[in-house]
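Crash report, auto-generated. Payload:
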Amino acid sequence: MRCRSPEPALPSSAGHINPAGLCLYGSPAHTSVMRVNKQRAKGLSIRGSQEEDPPDPQLMRLDNMLLAEGVAGPEKAKLTQIRQIYHTELEKYEQACNEFTTHVMNLLREQSRTRPISPKEIERMVGIIHRKFSSIQMQLKQSTCEAVMILRSRFLDARRKRRNFSKQATEILNEYFYSHLSNPYPSEEAKEELAKKCSITVSQGVGSTITVSQVSNWFGNKRIRYKKNIGKFQEEANLYAAKTAVNAAHAVAAAVQNSQANSPTTPNSGFQMKDEEFQLDSAESKNTLLTNMFTGSSGSFNLPNSGDMFLSMQSLNGDSYLGAQVGANVQSQVDTLRHVISQTAGYNDALGRNTMYSPHGLHANGGWQNARTPSSVISPTEGPGSVYSDTSN
DNA sequence: GACAATGATTTATA
DNA sequence: TATAAATCATTGTC
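Recovered output after restart:
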């Protein structure tokens, strides 16, 4: 149940101060507001009114609190408005108190001509007046604090509102999801890294950050929605699978080049890759590449890695996406790659296992195998510690 | 304005 | 305690 905060009741004039005025009950802020008000009420006097020139410490504190929360724009303007009204009203009360006291003193002086008036009586009268005004001033302060607190809660409430993640952030999360399709349960570290990565990306655009719990939410939603309607996500899965493939291809190409550069005596393994073959400027071209990879029509490059990628194709369409022919094609490409990579050294363990055709991943009953087992990762495309790898699958 | 997409919340469960 | 599943509520698109 979401609560909606009402509009802050701004104390616009002395006559409008809510006499009950005090609804910050229960909250620590309320307690502290009351405590401060009590302290302030104790020392309230006409003379003390001059102490109001510096900004109210409580309001200053709330102000700082709001600023720390990132209050800006209209909220901040409203805060300034509240403070201005508060100080204006306070001044008015103090002036009225002064004037009224002077007036009563004059009256008493007048009366002293007809009857004896003791200084004690004058003091008592002034005391009564001051007490009355203090009480009104306290109400003003309480109302102001209330308005500020409402403003704050409204701001926090607004922050709870749903905001779509940036495109880049969603892409990062999707990349992870589809490259870990057999076990889309990022570890705590992976979540942290994803959150970090997303926030870095997002901060360049929207200026917000994504927390670890938001990453968890995202994966929770993604898993359930993917499982519910695999067909709907097929295109997306293809796209990200292609992306992963391209990334892997780049990494392999780099590894091969590196290997050749480091070992001038090593003959060319026959696995030549031109970088332009992997330039995919559009989703369409990625899809084309993907299609070619699975049909073998391109000839330039076929599936480099990613058992998950094949898994996604399988699981998306039941158990026979392009069937064994594709599987064999993929297998041969993987074998070629494995051979190349084994020559470049360093990733044998990572790619040494071929689980491409094992029926892992999404179960027929709708669950993921090894659910709740965080995937740990070392990948040829990203290296140790990266969140983008699923070689454990 | 209708509808789909999506982030957040709640509840139940292992 | 993490997750699944259902649901809510907002945002974006047409």
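Post-recovery validation: The two ends of chain A are 41 Å apart (CA to CA).
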